[in-house]
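Researcher: I'd like a structural prediction for the single chain below. Treat it as a standalone chain; there are no partners to consider.
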Amino acid sequence: MSDIGKKTAAVDEIRAVIEDWAGAMREKDARRVHAHGSEDCIVFSLAPPLKETAAGAEGLEQWFSTWKGPLGYRLQELEISAGGDVAFATALTHLSGEKQDGEKAALWFRQTLGLKRTEKGWKIAHQHESVPFYMDGSFKAAIDLDPTSEVDWQAPSRPPMAGVIAYLNVQDANATAEFYGRAFGAKEEDRKYAEDGKRLIHCHLTINGGALMLNDPFPEHGMPYAAPQGIVLHLVVDDADFWWKRAVAAGAEVTMPLEVAFWGDYYGQLRDPFGISWAIVAPVKKD
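Model: Treating it as a single chain, here is the predicted structure.
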């Protein structure tokens, strides 16, 4: 067989391996996915840490368990280059599905696979996944892109968020965010789940025009839960009565009645079910 024929045959073999590997991802068959990797496979995945080895299928099975039903896992623009016993493949990959908590996810990311020929056939020895970041100072991952997206490099950068932003480590970030929606009209801007699919590593809310960030405790990374003390989040609003009644109706506890304070503001304090104190503040209306 000529060199061209050997390369063509190798590419066909590799394509079949990758297609079966992607099919195993769709079916959430961790054992089959793992079987396509070499024993020394290195993985640079979207999730932390920066680098890991594909030592077994247990971690993948745990991740699969965070999804309902089969996964959407599709490779587009797959290109394979093979030479001797080494090959590389690149593709744009679409991941979609529904998490166990009902959240629906869909994103495109870039994927590179390094393969090597073994006695058992072609095996994936290197897996690299990545998404681009918006270079506007926000460092936000560009998970809203798709293969047809175009970037306007002349568009002005989004301004950074102003002021000091509170970042709360709460016992249940998901429940906290839902409560803040009912009590304070919070609008969710973004959320990111940890690898366990349950805890939030980041939740960005907007309340009264300002940003508030939440995350769950991660004691294994030096971020255990500690009961909040000595912190009050102030909401300076036009209609204090409206904000107060809505929060109390949602379940906030009154710790200081809403009344005209000695310094002249219409002021009161509440405690939410997660131990965070809030102040509702408004200027006293003059007749």
